[in-house]
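The data layer described in this paper is built around a simple, fixed record for each protein. Because each token names a local backbone shape, the row as a whole describes the fold. We quote a single record here, exactly as it is kept in our systems:

***
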Amino acid sequence: MADSTAVVIGAMLVAPLLGPIMALGIALLGGRGQSFVAPAFALIEGAAVAVLLSWMLTGC
């Protein structure tokens, strides 16, 4: 609401991960163990790529 730069950057980081987050929640609520693996892997992979890319871009 305050147009904070940190909020905008945070939203840009979280937005691509919303699909795996929602799929993970649906798999957990539905009790489907097989459906849990793919979104969990995508979420971990997306978070790791975001952290590594930001670490590389800031000069290690």
About this structure: Helices lie at 5-14, 18-30, 34-57.
